[in-house]
Design goal:
Blueprint: E1 5-8, H1 12-24, E2 28-34, H2 41-45, E3 48-53, H3 64-74, E4 78-80, H4 90-98, E5 102-103, H5 108-115, H6 117-126, E6 134-135, H7 142-152, E7 156-160, E8 169-172, H8 175-193, E9 198-202, E10 208-216, E11 222-234, E12 237-243, H9 250-266, E13 272-279, E14 285-291, H10 298-305, H11 309-317, E15 334-341, E16 343-344, E17 350-351, E18 354-355, E19 358-360, E20 365-367, E21 370-376, E22 383-384, E23 391-399, H12 402-414, E24 417-419, H13 425-432, H14 435-439, H15 446-450, H16 462-486, E25 499-506, E26 509-518, E27 521-526, E28 536-541, E29 549-554, E30 557-566, E31 569-574, E32 577-584, H17 586-592, E33 606-608, E34 613-618, E35 625-626, E36 631-637, E37 640-645, E38 650-655, E39 662-663, E40 668-673
Parallel strand pairs: 1-2, 1-4, 2-3, 4-5
Antiparallel strand pairs: 6-9, 7-8, 7-9, 10-11, 10-13, 11-12, 12-15, 13-14, 15-23, 16-17, 18-22, 19-24, 20-21, 21-23, 25-26, 25-32, 26-27, 27-28, 28-29, 29-30, 30-31, 31-32, 33-40, 34-36, 34-39, 35-38, 36-37, 38-40
Helix pairs in contact: 4-5, 5-6, 7-8, 12-13
Length: 679
């Protein structure tokens, strides 16, 4: 046996994912948890669990001493750090070694040489590997940052020297943005990684983010497992990844692979790691940084290579030589990964918290050349906390071609039901059908360019609207039959009429239909005078009331539609679209048309909190004059700091919150008086 017991010094989906491989290898596992994670899935699925402390990461998952004590108390002979938290801290690896515990990751000197962005760039420069132009010394303060940025030329990227995941990163286009971004990035880096050192480099416009997965053992062997494209990002955090990249050709792939392997060999790298590159559209590439840990997006590489990267990490840490030669690494098919986040795409992807009232991911399976895999750390009923990353799950599909993998991903997203929080599943579903994404013409600015105002599910149109109207008719038919059976007339066992005339109001659209029963299904006939498609749609489904996803056959094609009950109707979501649907008799439809729409309460004079979080600071006071663009306060949510600004000139009349307050989404923070002429 490689190890008898492994402590997994992490939480959420990555802790669960590592535990699955360890269990398959016959290794016992130990979970650690904060008070916020006492009942989390990763705690329940492991053999033992140790409490670390309060919810704040600094007092739990980032506390090296507590984790070392947990190893000693449980007899764990190795620790896997996952990603984030302590995964790239040489001090953690050294503390474990001093305690006689094996760190499942690279040796401390490799972490220091390549895990630190400043040090790794110096090393790459010395090795004559092209790097993004920038300043490779620690920046003293905001004034120093402005001086450096002026010398490099705008735009620039401010980024934390330690860590990753978009924390401690800001793009700046002017000296003022550098001065402000420096402070925010420094604070985020300190909070997330315990290290507030920053660097500044040139921001490459229209760039792509491509990375090489490497494996190195403790016998001097290093190989790469091909590339991943991670260009679909928001707030510098990856959202969708794929392997291989639609940009690279064989020559570029080989060149990048050689570069990654050479860097790893030069520092004696001995675990799984990722060498990241900024790639121009002409395939010119620059070394960006090296992540000396397991990456969030490693599953796409596993699916195209057939290699369990976590297992290889464990075996390498136990002293085994690599079991795979470079020539044996073959990329088979295409894999797509979507990160399912607790966030609100309609509000610029701000985090969301709450309880997962419904959590029904699509079933993981491999059939007909398609694999669907869902890596998650939650179950229905769990709460999403403000203290940690908003990642809920990673939905991964694999198929023979990129187009087939994308189509499989789209179908799986349509079958993913989440309620109780805001989430990005509709956005991801729409993205899978976006022409630019499907063409492979990507850049790290893709989301900002294609969705500049965020994303709200549009109303379905055309043929899709007709199909959803037919689905709504089938749902209505089943609900009506159920209601009849539980009524006082149930004993009569009277079947529904053979033909039922109805009006479907789907968002702003109206469909006049007749529902006709035919065998095990039904036929929906469109009869409206303005409907050019007067032919019928056949619908077959075994859906039952209460199920959050409707699965069935519509017009001969399988379809999954997310269903949420409304008063006198349902909301249907499919392919990134959504609409409230109500079905009436023709007479009821006439009456409904006379009803007045309820107007929302006007909150235009208030600053409402766009996300649940903690007030870091308030920049204004009652009676103060503010101008459009002025910073009003800073909110920290899920380890990211967000500056809220005035949208127009006015006077602050009331401030309802103060630093340290925990605030809910849409909670009023302050109120304003505006000159009517500015409204």
């Amino acid at each position: 046996m490689v190890f008898e017991k492994i402590l997994i010094a992490n939480r959420g989906e990555i802790a669960c994912r590592i535990a699955r491989t360890a269990g398959r290898m016959g290794i016992r596992t130990v979970a650690v948890y904060s008070d916020a994670d006492r009942n989390a899935l990763h705690v329940r699925m492991m053999d033992e669990a140790v409490r670390l402390g309060p919810a704040q990461p600094a007092e739990s998952y980032l506390d090296i001493e507590k984790i070392v004590r947990a190893c000693k108390s449980t007899g764990a002979d190795a620790v896997h750090p996952g990603y984030g938290f302590l995964s790239e801290r040489a001090a953690f690896a050294e503390a474990l070694s001093a305690a006689g515990v094996v760190f499942i990751g690279p040796n401390p000197s490799a972490i220091e040489a390549m895990g630190d962005k400043i040090a790794s760039k110096k090393f790459a420069d010395a090795a004559k590997v092209a790097t993004v132009p920038g300043h490779l010394e620690v920046i003293l303060d905001a004034a120093d940052a402005v001086r450096i940025a002026d010398a490099i030329g705008y735009p620039v990227m401010i980024k934390a020297s330690a860590g990753g995941g978009g924390k401690g990163m800001r793009i700046a286009h002017s000296p003022a943005e550098v001065a402000e971004g420096f402070g925010r990035a420094k604070s985020e880096a300190r909070s997330s990684f315990g290290d507030d050192r920053l660097l500044i480099e040139k921001f490459i416009v229209d760039a792509r983010h491509v990375e090489m997965q490497i494996l190195g053992d403790r016998h001097g062997n290093v190989i790469h497992l091909g590339e991943r494209e991670c260009s679909i990002q928001r707030r510098h955090q990856k959202v969708v990844e794929e392997a291989p990249s639609p940009l690279l050709d064989d020559a570029t792939r080989s060149a990048m692979g050689r570069c990654a392997v050479a860097l790893a060999k030069a520092v004696g790298y001995d675990s799984a790691g990722t060498v990241e590159f900024v790639v121009a559209q002409d395939r010119t590439f620059y070394f960006l940084e090296m992540n000396t840990r397991l990456q969030v997006e490693h599953p796409v590489t596993e699916l195209v290579t057939g290699i369990d990267i976590v297992e290889e990490m464990i075996r390498i840490a136990a002293g085994e030589p690599l079991r795979i030669a470079q020539a044996a690494v073959k990329l088979q098919g295409w894999a797509i990964e979507s990160r399912v986040y607790a966030e609100d795409p309609s509000r610029d992807f701000v985090p969301s918290t709450g309880r997962l009232v419904t959590y029904r991911p699509p079933a993981g399976e491999t059939r007909a050349g398609i694999t669907v895999r869902n890596d998650t750390g939650v179950v229905e009923g769990d709460a999403i906390s403000i203290f940690y990353d908003p990642l809920i799950a990673k939905l991964v599909t694999h198929a023979g071609t990129r187009e087939d993998a994308i189509d499989a991903q789209a179908r799986a997203l349509d079958a993913f039901a989440i309620e109780g929080i805001r989430h990005n599943v509709p956005f991801l579903s729409a993205l899978m059908r976006h022409p630019r994404w499907r063409s492979g013409h990507l850049a790290t600015t893709f989301i900002a360019e294609e969705f500049p105002r965020g994303f709200a599910p549009p109303e379905p149109k055309g043929e899709m609207a007709r199909k959803l109207a037919a689905v709504a008719a089938a749902i209505f038919d089943i609900n009506s039959e159920r209601a009849r059976q539980v009524s006082n007339r149930a004993h009569a066992r009277r079947k529904a009429p053979l033909a039922d005339e109805r009006v479907v109001l789907l968002g702003s659209l109206r469909f006049d239909i007749v529902i006709e029963h035919a065998g095990k299904g039904l036929t929906v006939r469109f009869t409206g005078e303005g409907d050019r498609h007067r032919e019928a749609i056949a619908v077959v489904s075994h859906w039952r009331p209460g199920e959050p996803v409707w699965h069935g056959i519509v017009d001969g094609e399988p379809i999954a539609v997310q269903v949420r009950a409304l008063q006198y109707g349902v909301t249907l979501a499919h392919a990134g679209t959504a609409a409230a649907v109500r079905i009436y008799s023709p007479r009821e439809a006439e009456a409904a048309a006379l009803m007045h729409a309820k107007r929302p309460i006007d909150t235009g004079t208030q600053l409402l909190c766009p996300m649940p979080g903690v007030i870091v600071s308030i920049a204004v006071m009652a009676g103060q004059q503010v101008e459009a663009g002025d910073a009003l306060c800073i909110i920290e949510a899920m380890k990211m700091e967000n500056v809220l600004r005035a949208e127009r000139d006015g006077v602050v009349t009331n401030v309802y919150a103060r630093a340290g307050d925990v605030v809910a989404v849409d909670a009023p923070i302050m109120e304003f008086a505006f000159d009517p002429r500015s409204l």
